[in-house]
């Protein structure tokens, strides 16, 4: 417990430092040797993790000034409503849903529901899913017949919004999206491929990856997104037991393939392993998924196994990757190092970072630590 609380203290210290550095902009990724952030003006797809961290900080400390800061940060994210991207689920979920769930905040609720309605409007009934959208945040142009496992996050977001708003059509869209995206991207060996191209009727044309090593490899975050978002979807629709089955199969694949030191490489099929980048982002988000599954998996032995599989990576991260990592380490405290944002040569210029501090990683580490200290029920978020 002392290890977890000490790590949280470092993260809160880093949050104060980050606020001073980024001003009214949103942190995106950071050179962890200098502490300098690459920022965005409107939050991009990652910006919601910043107010999300403030909601979590308020939950941990009881200091409602963090709530006020979270709400202020959502103001700059409101323009994301008009963006044609399925990934706008992220800023509205972490910026709004967390405030609604953890603090019953009406402003956060209204913010999130506005985003959910704009997202539901992108639904394609012929494809039976929400496509990536013409403005999706990828390194190359995407069409409205592209999908990805990343987009599965839209389902738990829409299912939450449907329950709160009483919108039955939104609930149907959320369910149909997950029912299409999960089997489309989970392979027979239970790994997840990131991306897919469909024809106009919704039939699969090809599998590929926007961010992994190759079109057939298992990109680390793809495996995590499939596992985590299937779990989150199930938590919002407990009757959808096939989603829980998919999540557990994905979790079991992860546990069987992750390195013995518990910290994943950026892509499980990079032939340069072990001489290639780790990805603390994929690793810590996997622990988020496993902590949720440790509450809802089908039997006690499996729940216990998932709990242990979640805790071991968190211990590795806070002892070996969260600054300071040694007595002589003079870097800013609370930086989670060695996240691999995007190695692809066709990545957007502001995404091209293969060893960095990544805002997503910071959020998930704080979330996991709150769960491990008993301050947060993992099934709430």
Care to give the gist of this entry?
The protein is mainly alpha-helical and 381 residues long.
* Radius of gyration over all CA atoms, rounded: 19 Å
Mean pLDDT: 96
Strand order of the biggest β-sheet: 2-1-6
The biggest sheet amounts to: 3 strands, antiparallel
What does the secondary structure layout of this molecule look like, with pairings?
Elements: H1 2-22, E1 26-31, E2 36-40, H2 49-61, H3 65-75, H4 89-103, H5 106-120, E3 146-148, H6 154-165, H7 168-185, E4 195-198, E5 204-208, H8 220-236, H9 241-257, H10 280-296, H11 300-320, E6 357-358, H12 359-372
Helix pairs in contact: 1-12, 2-3, 2-4, 2-12, 3-4, 4-5, 4-6, 5-6, 6-7, 6-8, 8-9, 8-10, 9-10, 10-11, 10-12
Offer a few descriptive terms.
12 helices, mainly alpha, Glycosyltransferase, 381 residues, 3-stranded antiparallel β-sheet, 6 strands
Account of the protein in words:
The protein is mostly helical and 381 residues long. The protein has a domain of 165 residues: Glycosyltransferase (Alpha/alpha barrel). The chain has twelve helices and six strands. It has a three-stranded antiparallel β-sheet. A three-stranded antiparallel β-sheet has the order 3-4-5, with helices on one face. The chain is globular. It starts with a helix and ends in a 9-residue tail after the last helix.
